[in-house]
Amino acid sequence: MITIVASRGNVYLLAALYAFGVIWSFALISLAVLVLRYTSPENRQWKVPGNFHIGKTEIPVGLAIISLILFMTAAVAKGAKPLVGQALRRAKAALGRVAKAPEPFDVKAGRARFAAAFEGRWAA
Fold first, then answer.
1. Confidence at residue 124, expressed as pLDDT on a 0 to 100 scale
2. Residues of the chain with pLDDT > 90: what percent?
3. H or E stretch at 21
4. Upper half-sphere CA count for residue 102 (Cβ side, 13 Å)
5. Looking at the domain assignment, is residue 42 inside a domain?
């Protein structure tokens, strides 16, 4: 509730922060699993495919590729955030120009303009 109040109900900001947190948590968890493969190399029930064996050492290439992809995605998301914000501001400005509410119509001024435009054309 505090985050909703602090963001003043800006759902786009909350979604961006959530996505930012999720991608970085995935990237850091994959890095932690990669580190655990070297610090605690005992047998595991399940391993990411793509491991190579050199002697008794197992090299988790598949996990390293996944970690690299996750970190690249997180870096791109961090770098793209200003671009997305700029695009949203441009879209809001464009919508503001297109969808402006009409000004209130002044009936007397409208009748005067009509009379001036068609003066003498419908003389009886």
1. 47
2. 8
3. helix 11-39
4. 3
5. yes
Task: Tell whether 110 is covered by a domain.
Answer: no
- CA 63 to chain centroid, in Å, comes to 26
- Asked if 73 and 67 touch (Cβ cutoff 8 Å), the reply is no
> What token pair was written down for 33?
């699993």
**Is residue 68 in some structural domain?**
yes
Residue whose token pair is 């949203």: 88
Distance CA 32, CA 60 (A): 13
Tokens representing residue 91 in the block: 């879209």
Domain count, the chain: 1
Is residue 124 assigned to a domain? no
Domain membership of residue 27 as a residue range: 2-100
Whose tokens are 């996990």? That residue is 63
Q: What is the mean pLDDT of residues 8-13?
A: 72
Give the H or E element holding residue 59.
Answer: strand 57-60
Lowest mean pLDDT segment, chosen from 1-10, 13-22, 109-118: 1-10
Do residues 47 and 60 make contact, with C-beta atoms less than 8 angstroms apart?
yes
